[in-house]
Amino acid sequence: MLALSGTAALLPLAATENPRPGGAAAVGVLVVAAYSALVTITPTSLGVDLEPECRAAQEAIGVFTFVFKVVLRCAPLLFAAVAIPIYVYLLLLLYYITLDVISAIVSLPGKLDLIAERMSKSEQA
């Protein structure tokens, strides 16, 4: 909602009778920010599922992933510069490789607890 109201302030800059040099850029920012605000309101459109029970690390990973998915969805709006979408996709691939490593590290304590629990049960039996 903040992004949507913030971009409304840029509309007069883009819609004046005497176009200013930043007018086209303001329209582009308005479109991207408005789209980002609408996607933020409905996170299921990005394939994001909200879970009430998760660890803080998983929540942080989810927030970063959500931001990158919004950037990825806004990339086609920036096709005026051909290189931008390519860089966004490469950045997203690098992010997901890093995300896999971080997810493996975050899930490690839970797996170690499960192994310790199984060992203690087998020792008691």
Tell me what you see in this structure.
This protein is mostly helical and 125 residues long. It has two domains: 1-41, no CATH class; 52-125. The protein has five helices and no strands. It has helices at residues 2-8, 11-14, 23-41, 56-74, 83-124. Helix 1 (2-8) runs antiparallel to helix 3 (23-41), helix 3 (23-41) crosses helix 4 and helix 4 (56-74) packs antiparallel against helix 5 (83-124). The radius of gyration is 22 Å and the shape is elongated. It starts with a helix and ends with a helix. 3% of the residues are buried. The model has no long low-confidence stretch (mean pLDDT 74).
Overall pLDDT, averaged?
Answer: 74
State the total count of DSSP E strands: 0
What is the overall shape?
elongated
- Count of DSSP-assigned helices: 5
The residue ranges in which pLDDT falls below 50 over 5 or more consecutive positions are none
Calculate the terminal CA-CA distance, rounded to whole Å. 58 Å
- Which range best describes the helical content: under 10%, 10-25%, 25-40%, 40-55%, 55-70% or over 70%? over 70%
Write down the Rg. 22 Å
Query: How many strands, which pairing sense, and closed or not: the largest β-sheet?
Result: none
Q: What letter string, H or E per element, gives the SSE order?
A: HHHHH
Strand content: under 5%
Q: Any idea how many domains?
A: 2
Structural class: mainly alpha
